[in-house]
Amino acid sequence: MQFSPTNVDFTFVSSTEAEELSGTISAPDIKLNMGAESGKDPYATTFLRQRGYGWLLEVDEEDTEESKPLLEELDIDLKDIYYKIRCVLMPMPSLGYNRQVVRDNPDFWGPLAVVVSWIITIWIFGSTTIFLLARVLGGEVSFGQVLGVIGYSLLPLIVIAPLLLVIGGFEVVSTLIKLFGVFWAAYSAASLLVGDEFKTKKPLLIYPIFLLYIYFLSLYTGV
C-alpha cells in the first residue's frame, strides 16, 4: 500500500520512486536596494530594519569640501616672502625690484622667520663652542645635551626681563640685575655640563657661557 499525500507545495513519494526523480530548485530573484531610492523599501531592507539592524544600511556622506593646504590656512605666501627678502638684500634700484611692497604689504611670517633663524643660529653656534670647551675640560656630554642645557638656562634671563622693564630708569640697579641674571644662567649651565669630579674647571667653562648669555641679553635690552 502506497501513501502519497499531495498539496500545492509538496508531493510525498516512496524511496523507490525518489531514485527516478531529478530536477532543480529555482530561487526567487531578490535584489537589494541599499540606497532605498524607491518609494517602498525592498524586502531585505525592511527585514533588517524591523529587527534593529537598520544601521547596517546607513551610508556616511563624504565631505566634498576639499581641505586647504597648511600654508594657505596660515596665510603664508612663500613666493611673496622670497621676493621681499630679495628686495631687502639687493636694494639697488637698477635691479628693478618693487621694494615698496615690503612696506606697503607687510606680513608676519617673514620677519618671524628672520628673527627666529637669527636666534637659532646664535644658539647653535654658541652651543657648539661650549660643547667643544666642555669636552676639552673633561665633560662627558653630547652636543644634544649642550643644546638642551644652554636653551633651558636662558630661563633666568627671562625671569629678570620684567624687572628690567620696571626699574629701567635706575641704571645702577638695572646693571646689577643684568649681571645677576647672566651669572645665574651661566653658573646653572656650567654646573650641568661639568660633573662634580671637575669642579675646579667650572670657572673655565662659566666664562664663555657668561659671554654667550650677555649677548643673548643684549638682543633683548639693545645694549
From TrEMBL:
One GO CC term, this protein: Golgi membrane
Classify the main location.
Answer: Golgi
Q: Which Pfam families did the record assign?
A: Yip1 (PF04893)
Where, subcellularly, is it found?
Golgi apparatus membrane; Golgi apparatus, cis-Golgi network membrane
List the membrane topology term(s): Multi-pass membrane protein
Q: Which sequence ranges are marked TM in the entry? A: 108-134, 146-170, 176-195, 204-222
Identify the domain of life: Eukaryota
Query: InterPro entries given for it?
Result: Yip1/4-like, Yip1_dom
Residues forming the Yip1 domain are 114-218
The record's Gene Ontology biological-process terms are: endoplasmic reticulum to Golgi vesicle-mediated transport; vesicle fusion with Golgi apparatus
Q: Which UniProt keywords apply?
A: Golgi apparatus, Membrane, Transmembrane, Transmembrane helix
**Family the UniProt entry places it in:** Belongs to the YIP1 family.
Job of this protein? Involved in the maintenance of the Golgi structure.
- Supply the name of the protein: Protein YIPF
Record the organism.
Etheostoma spectabile
